[in-house]
Amino acid sequence: MFQKLIEKAEIQFSALKPFVLYRKPLEQNVIGLFQNDDALHYVQEYTKNGFVFAPFNADEPTIFMQIDEKVIVVYEEAKTTNEPSEIKVEEDDRSKEFHINLVKKGIDAIKNNAFKKVVLSRKIEVGIKKSAFVLFQELLANYDNAFCYLWYHPKVGLWLGATPEILLRAENSQLKTMSLAGTQKYTGNESPEWGMKELEEQALVTSYISKAIAPEVKQLKISETTSVRAGNLWHLRTSVSGIMNNNAIHSIIKALHPTPAVCGLPKKETKAFVIAHENYNREFYTGFLGELNFKEEQFRSGNRRNKENQAYKTIKNTSSLYVNLRCMQVKQDKAYIYVGGGITKDSIPNKEWEETVAKSKTMLKVLLD
What SUPFAM superfamilies does this protein map onto (predicted)? Predict the structure, then answer.
């Protein structure tokens, strides 16, 4: 069944029609959504039911894929272990020099009180011989604790990735989001030790998210910060939850995106700095994607004495949106990988470069293995 889904997607791709294949973290099902024509749709009020794909720049429109056909299959392939990658990355001296200088500019701006934190990134070009469908299957095999996807629209392009970060999950009025910041390599350590730079960065992100959504939710709760592993990396994660006022998902998305984990603090100033200085267009990297207003049936037990009414059905409205990290864009025989990191006043430029090298291995692992 799984291979039939891949074949269906390949036919859709050859016919130049939009589709997305994806699997949620720690789930067995792979979902395929297919649109029957090549129309390019957008969403504004976030009241429609479909799959959304949003760019980093929130001033640009969010793409909406309508669901003309939905296929759900069980992923059948054996999973591999998420051991640290041994991929050797050839460093481009010019790219390294540019990124280190970019980080230095960011640190100088922070010290001059332009902003508190900024997230700076770069793009890596890699020649590939594998098809996007093979790459997607390798993402599924290697990263079962990430949102793995393959998204295509003939008028936009082809993207795929394995992202560990939730933008938000909503079930009726229940809302959950997270702050994810701080990075260090996984080297077999089951209990990583975090420095002040990472802890302060995480605290900044958590504080921002909590304040940003506070006007739109009640019963706001903030969890303890924990260490979570994503492939060959460790991150710090804090969960934030509450009950939405009037199911205000559009207002919450507007408040959150782009989050300080992918842009910086404050949002307006750091976004302007990123666009002015990164020297490339992020497009959909650090945007978000996922299910919008999906309807799910929920069965509950009824009165046992009445066999004709032993269960009754309710419909819940759910949305699951993920930040588009650890991703790549594929164009013919080239893949473009996007990586970045949070910069604070305590950042060390060479270490920030090394962090982007470590993060690039998530995608390079499936490209070059």
Answer: ADC synthase (SSF56322)
> DSSP class of residue 61?
P
Owning domain of residue 252: 2-80+100-296+312-368
Quote the CA–CA distance of 133 and 337 in Å, as a whole number: 17
Tokens 């041994």 belong to which residue? 86
Q: What is the CA radius of gyration of the chain?
A: 21
Whose CA is closest to 183, among 221, 231, 223?
231
- Please answer whether residues 145 and 83 qualify as being in contact, where contact means their C-beta atoms are separated by less than 8 angstroms: no
What's the token pair of residue 139? 């993402």
Tokens of 41: 């749709």
Query: Per-residue pLDDT for 174 more than 80?
Result: yes
Reported as type and span, the H/E element at residue 5 is: helix 2-14
Kindly state whether residue 92 falls inside one of the protein's structural domains: no
Contact 150, 160 (CB under 8 A): yes
Total of domains in the chain: 1
Predicted confidence band at 179 (pLDDT cuts at 50, 70, 90)? Answer: confident
Whether cis (ω within 30° of 0) applies to the bond prior to 164 is no
Residue 66 lies in a domain: yes
Backbone torsions φ then ψ of 206, nearest 5 degrees: -60, -45
Measured distance CA(28)–CA(223) in Å, rounded = 27
Spell out a b/e string for 325-351, using b for 16 or more CB atoms within 10 Å of the CB, else e.
Answer: bbbbbbeeeebbbbbbbbbbeebebee
Structure tokens at 70: 């939905």
Q: Is residue 87 included in any domain, yes or no? A: no
The CATH number that applies at residue 55 is: 3.60.120.10
User: Considering the domain boundaries, does residue 341 fall inside one?
Assistant: yes
Residue 306 scores a pLDDT above 70:
no
* Alpha carbon separation from 139 to 29, 163, 279 (Å, rounded): 14, 10, 29
Residue labelled with tokens 């002040």: 196
Share the mean pLDDT of the chain: 89
Return the pLDDT at 124. 94
